[in-house]
Amino acid sequence: MKKGILIAFGEIFLKSPGVQKLFKQRLFFNLSFFLKKTNLDFKIYSQRERIFVATEKTKRAIKMIKKIFGISWFAESLFFEKGSLEEVSDFVKKNYKDWIKEDETFALRLKKSSEIKQSGQKIIEEIAEGIKRKVNLEKPKREIFVEARKEGWYLYFKKKKGAGGLPVGVGGKVLALISGGIDSPVASYLMAKRGAENVWLHFHSFPLVSRASIEKVKELAKIFLEYQPHLKIYLVPFSKIQTEIRTKTLPKYRVLLYRRIMLKIAKSIAKREKCSAIATGESLGQVSSQTLPNIQIIEKAVSIPVLRPLIGMDKEEIIKLAKKIKTYQISIKPQEDCCTLFTPKHATAKGNLKEIEKMEKKLNIQKSIKDTLKEIEIINY
Ligand code: ATP
Ligand code: MG
Q1: Any idea of the CA torsion for 163, 169, 174, 176, to the nearest 10 degrees?
Q2: How far apart are CA 343 and CA 215, in angstroms?
Q3: Whose alpha carbon is nearest atom 17 of ligand 1?
Q4: Ligand 1 touching residue 182 (CB < 6 A)
Q5: Cis peptide before 237 (omega within 30 of 0)
Q6: Which ligand is closest to the CA of 183, given by its number?
């Protein structure tokens, strides 16, 4: 009998067998990667409908497993490899007093795969016979789950909700624009949750300001690396472009210009990284650059899809999620934001695309973008 964690896949089951196989392989890969990082002794059993992680250090393994995407639930479990009904019912008979107090009720919940010959009724009766406690199927104090499968039998008591989503890496690649603020890391987390591998891009204004925003992004990356095995970060200097915009254009359109140029640069990096979309932390109406008319103007700058996983979320909801994934405390550290530094007090909530395009021509932004791309720094985690 082995101790460990039983893992159930979530949505993977909605997929065709071929896709399922790929998804399971990726989940297996991610699990082994993160488990190796914890320095635990473990062995992973990959089965048709379940994965079992055999380990003595279940608490430590769970801390990590609960963050892995593609898992709908998990349970601390015992695994009777190639086990039998007899073995399991004997074990239950010997140990049930440790699980169910004298005055407590219980219910047995059975899941049985088709290869198991005995009837479900017989299995339940035989195991329950050894438990001298009252049965209550509707509202039991304790539930005992038994899964009888070809590979072996599982016994567990409590299912815990997994991180959900799809295994990181099955959904292609996305370039996430990370500012160092609260919203963008949450957006990147949500993209990873749907299986996309994130590459990060951060625009900084060094040497006009300190490297604080870069340090924040690195700190955020440490947290993010608990969800995604590896992360590549592009650090792009934005101060020259900002200075140019500020000296040559009208204040009320500057934010839109910054955003459009950011997207244009992002697009060329996305292409280089084979990312099929860009993701941002924008939420509808949160600030003047995030109104529908301005989103349209910003997005017209590029042909690649711009995904905004937070678009329908309130600030409060975003903060709650940021706290849950532990990015919040890092995000709220002070930083001279490359955009706030140059943002005029009253930006327009409804820009004019024609005027903006005219200004861009005047700026010769193609050249500025080209120059900027030469000064990129890359970090590989
Ligand atoms: P955040 O909390 O992510 O900073 P925000 O609410 O402050 O977002 P804006 O400053 O308008 O919103 O930025 C909108 C989005 O544009 C950000 O969520 C991020 O995806 C992207 N962005 C803004 N500034 C930068 C930057 N310096 N580097 C990379 N991306 C940025
Ligand atoms: Mg911001």
Answers
A1: 50
A2: 22
A3: 281
A4: yes
A5: no
A6: 1
pLDDT in tens, 120-151: 999 999 999 999 999 999 999 999 999 999 99
Number of the ligand 1 atom closest to the C-alpha atom of 201: 29
> Over the Cα atoms of the chain, what is R_g?
26
| Residue 203 in contact with ligand 1 by CB distance below 6 A | yes
**The predicted structure's pLDDT at residue 338:** 54
Q: Is the CB of 339 under 6 A from ligand 1?
A: yes
Give the closest residue to 65 by CA, choosing from 25, 22, 33.
33
- Please state at what angle helix 85-99 crosses helix 120-129, rounded to 10 degrees: 40
Phi, psi of 95 (to 5 degrees): -115, -5
Q: Is 177 in the pocket of ligand 1 (CB under 6 A)?
A: yes
Across 52-61, average pLDDT: 96
The pLDDT tens digits of the residues spanning 214-261 come to 999 999 999 999 999 999 999 999 999 999 998 888 888 888 999 999
Query: Is the pTM higher than 0.85?
Result: yes
Distance CA 217, CA 222 (A): 9
The residue to which tokens 């995407």 are assigned:
69
**Amino acid letter, residue 145:** F
Averaged pLDDT for residues 350-361:
87
> Do the beta carbons of residue 143 and residue 106 sit within 8 Å?
yes
Give dist(CA 118, CA 148) in Å, integer.
10
Question: What's the CA gap between 6 and 186, in Å, rounded?
Answer: 28
As a whole number, mean pLDDT of residues 27-43 equals 95
The finding on whether 309 has its CB within 6 A of some atom of ligand 1 is no
CB 283 within 8 A of CB 318: yes
Please state, for a pLDDT cut of 90, what percent of the chain lies above it. 78
Those residues whose beta carbon sits under 5 angstroms from the ion ligand 2 are 179, 181
Pocket lining: 280 vs ligand 1, CB cutoff 6 Å? yes
Dihedral of CA atoms 15, 164, 155, 137 in degrees, nearest 10, equals -100
- Ligand 2 centre from 106 Cα, in Å? 52
